[in-house]
Amino acid sequence: MTTLAVSPITARKHRRLSDQGFITVMVAVVAVLLFLLASVLVPNFFQLQNMINLVTNNWAVISLGVGVTFLLVSGNFDLSVGGNVALAGVLSVWLAQSTGGANTLSTGLGFPLPLALAGAMAGALAIGALNAFFVVRLGVPSIIVTLGTMMVARGLAQVITHGSQRNTNLPDGFGTLGNLTLFGTVKLPVVLMGMLLLVAVFIERRMLIGRVTYWVGANPVAATLSGIDRGRHVTRLYLFSAAIAGMVGILLASEFKSGFSNRGMLMEFDALVIALLGGVAIAGGFGSVIGMFFGAIILAVVTSAATGLVLSPDWQFILKAVAVFLAITAQTWALARRNR
Question: What one-character DSSP code corresponds to residue 137?
Fold first, then answer.
């Protein structure tokens, strides 16, 4: 009987994880280590309910992170999601409010609730379409476009609410979606976030649209020469991200039974931060939704620990910045060492 000799280098190549898998595992390990460190430093931090809260309290940012991750992998930014959250929430309230209220802020358009929610989603998708038009058709850098549309969306929300909020004269069922509980005490928005993550991972790993996203981000010229309609694909990604932002905005408005023009403030940057913490390359072509999720856990642990240590919000911003800097530096160093 004969045996085939396999060189150590070939065997190692077959055994080892991909670079993306390696970074994802590393991010997960960092998240666990940070949690254990916070458990030592912060009293009563190591509790089951606190572990659950790290996810449930951040369902909105994690949901937004899915769309932002896909766009980053494709080589594009979406900084409009926070403004889109505010716009969708305000639109859902304004459209659902009854006509003839006591004052301007209590008077809406009186649409049936399903139609009001559809109108709010249409408004969010319009922002996504605007992003795609300027990025794809006019070739404007995505970071500039989405910063602009973020301000447009939030500005429209402020106009509709007169810089305040709308929270009266709403139909009875308006607060149902945001406060409905499933499986005992788990709120519907958290369940939807979990479903969104599962769908996103399936798309990323098993569907052609997911693989195309990596190809477009890694080498857009080669992707175009291969027959991929890069413009159409990026347009779909912007609409997908806008739809998630619209859903988050509607659910938050329903949860609090109000449309607030400042809702979602800085969520766009938190979504970007968790994607970068999760190993998504800012230049495109590399990253994963699972990595983004663990990046969200890292950010949640840092923020929660800072609150438990009674640090001021200013210090929390500094901690976020340091966490991002260290994460990107560590990932770059680890990949360089790995691929020597």
Answer: I
